Structure formats: C-alpha cells, structure tokens
C-alpha cells in the first residue's frame, strides 16, 4: 500500500481529535449551557494587555508636540518657554536694536529640541513669531502666521495622500500661547483680530503676561474683562474637555481650578534666587521675591500642568480631529 505524506497524516490526526472533542459529553454540555463554565475552566485570552502594548510602542516611538508663541515683544515669551521646559531654546538669539525693530517684519522661527524624562522622549518644536504687533500699522500682521499654519496642514495632507504614509512627520501646530499685555484694560483690537483669524485653525490659550506687574485684585478684574470680551467678540479659545464620571474627586477639583483660572496670569524666570532658606526660580525685587512656581503668586504651575501633564494629548487630538479635519474637508470639496 502507498504511504501517505506526513503532512496529510498530521491533518487526519488533528481532524480525528477535533471530532472526539466535539462529541465528548463535557463539550456538548458546554454548548448547550454556555454560561455555566466554572471560573477555573475559563481560558485567559490576553487582550487585557493591549494598553501595555500600546504604551510600549508609544514610548519606543516617542512623542512630538509643536507649540506656537505669539504676542508683542517684551512680554516674556522666550523666558516663559524656557521656564516651562527647563531648557534654553534661545541660545543663539540676536537682540535687535531700536532701528532694526522699527524695520522688522513678522518672522516665523522654529526651535526644535529633543527632551527625555524617565525614558519618555519628546520632540518639542517651538514656533516663535518675532515682530508680531510691533509695527505702527499692524494691519493683517497675523497673515504670515496663518499662512504658516495652513502650510503645515497642506504638507500633512500631501503626505497623508501619498504612497509612503508610514513615516509622516507631524509639524502641525498643536497649541498657540497668545500673550496679552498686562498694561491695558483688556483686549486690544490687534488681539481680537489675531485670535479671530486663528481660532478656526489652532488651539488658542490666552495668557496674561508679566503678572507680577499687577496686584491680585487687578489680575482678577483683568481676567473677568478678558473673558467677557472673548465671549462678546465670539472668539473660540481652547475649551478644556469635561471630566469623565469615573475620574477621582481630586482630578475633578484640579480641572475646575484650571477652568476658573483661565486666562492664566503667568510669570517666567530663568534665575534662581533664595527665599526662606530655599533656592527657587523667581524674580527679586526691593519689596520681596516673586516665585514662579508658587501658585499664590501666579498661574505658571497650572499652565505647565495643563500643557504638559494633563492636556497635551487632548490638544493634539483637537488639532487632528477638528482643525485639520476642517482643512481636509475644504481641500476635498475644492478637488471635487
């Protein structure tokens, strides 16, 4: 008699074992009463490890975040960014004299730095806008900024529509910190026009700059005035998402404090001073010390927590799911 190949014999044996298992009394009982399996008889599938798999893959790949800072010169934008990320992003910056500032136009300057903390890598890109709001005539001074944001959307759309979609570089602007002068009585016309020009394209987080120039009661009044004017002019600033019902009470309280503190009144400093026997980052004045990380002095810690620890991923999600999708829909409509 002819001998069957080994692969065919294996297949026959597997089928015979499967038939025996299906016809066994235990298997038939399980099929007729599927909900009566004992706990020790249930098999562990393993999909509960999916979050760990995603975590490992994300940490290995690293994260990227693009932050734009805008506002007139002299409001401490560079100092605040250095304070937020504990790094000097402006080592090679050239300070302009008075004549050069008069002739300066709005520029777009990118600073990229790789930051690592506890094995997690972040590629941080800061988009600076020197020259914004410094001219005598500031008509459409925000145009280079809106053009830059649109260019990043366009580049991402091209890459997404191309053949090689695996290694797309995301240079879209995820958040714009807009610095408001503390010396006015609310929003200036250029502030209103800037935010209205950008609010459909990027997440705007308004900040009151150099809060150490104001006393607490003045800060509260200025915040109320800015909130009223934001509502009055229909400006869409970044909205903090609502907490899930299963979040703990401490997180919900932090979320409430964040919402009540906006717009954040901030102070930046790269100088370490001594206060009450401790070395802290702050500013030394004849009347005392202003501590950057003291929540009784300013909202710097709240801004840092929001931007880095609690809402960075949501800022990226809103950029992708809302602002970019609006741009993408417009492009598709124009193509059809």
TrEMBL record:
The UniProt record lists the keyword GTP-binding = yes
Q: Where in the cell is it found?
A: Cytoplasm
Which Gene3D superfamilies did the record assign?
Answer: P-loop containing nucleotide triphosphate hydrolases
Q: Which CDD domains match?
A: CDC_Septin
Please name the GO terms of the biological process aspect recorded for this protein, alphabetically. Answer: cell division
Q: Could you give one GO CC term from the UniProt record? A: cytoplasm
Keyword Isomerase attached = no
Q: Which residues form the Septin-type G domain?
A: 61-334
Write out the similarity annotation. Belongs to the TRAFAC class TrmE-Era-EngA-EngB-Septin-like GTPase superfamily. Septin GTPase family.
Q: What is this protein called?
A: SEPT5 protein
What organism does the record attribute this protein to? Illadopsis cleaveri
User: What is this organism's lineage?
Assistant: Eukaryota, Metazoa, Chordata, Craniata, Vertebrata
User: Which gene holds the coding sequence for this protein?
Assistant: Sept5
């Amino acid at each position: 008699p002819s001998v069957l190949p080994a692969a065919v014999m294996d297949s026959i044996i597997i089928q015979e074992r499967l038939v025996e298992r299906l016809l066994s009394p235990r298997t038939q009982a399980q099929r007729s009463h599927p909900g009566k399996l004992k706990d020790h008889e249930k098999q562990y599938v393993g999909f509960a490890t999916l979050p760990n798999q995603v975590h490992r893959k994300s940490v290995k790949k690293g994260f990227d975040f693009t932050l734009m800072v805008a506002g007139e010169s002299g409001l401490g934008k560079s100092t605040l960014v250095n304070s937020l990320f504990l790094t000097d992003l402006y080592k090679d910056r050239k300070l302009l004299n008075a004549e050069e500032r008069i002739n300066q136009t709005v520029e777009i300057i990118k600073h990229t730095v790789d930051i690592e903390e506890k094995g997690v890598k972040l590629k941080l890109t800061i988009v600076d806008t020197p020259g914004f709001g410094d001219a005598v005539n500031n008509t459409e001074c925000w145009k280079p900024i809106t053009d830059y944001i649109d260019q990043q959307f366009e580049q991402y759309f091209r890459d997404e529509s191309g053949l090689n979609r695996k290694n797309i570089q995301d240079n879209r602007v995820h958040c714009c910190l807009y610095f408001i002068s503390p010396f006015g009585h609310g929003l200036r016309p250029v502030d209103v026009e800037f935010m209205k020009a950008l609010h459909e394209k990027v997440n705007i987080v308004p900040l009151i700059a150099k809060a150490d120039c104001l006393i607490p009661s003045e800060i509260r009044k200025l915040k109320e005035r800015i909130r009223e004017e934001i509502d009055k002019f229909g400006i869409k600033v970044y909205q903090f998402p609502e907490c899930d019902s299963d979040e703990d009470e401490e997180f919900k309280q932090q979320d409430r404090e964040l919402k009540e503190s906006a717009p954040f009144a901030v102070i930046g400093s790269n100088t370490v001073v001594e206060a009450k026997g401790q070395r802290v980052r702050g500013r030394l004045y004849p009347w005392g010390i202003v501590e950057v990380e003291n929540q009784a002095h300013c909202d710097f810690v709240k801004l840092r927590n929001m931007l880095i620890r609690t809402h960075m991923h949501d800022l990226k999600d809103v950029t992708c799911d809302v602002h970019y999708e609006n741009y993408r829909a417009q492009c598709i409509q124009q193509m059809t």
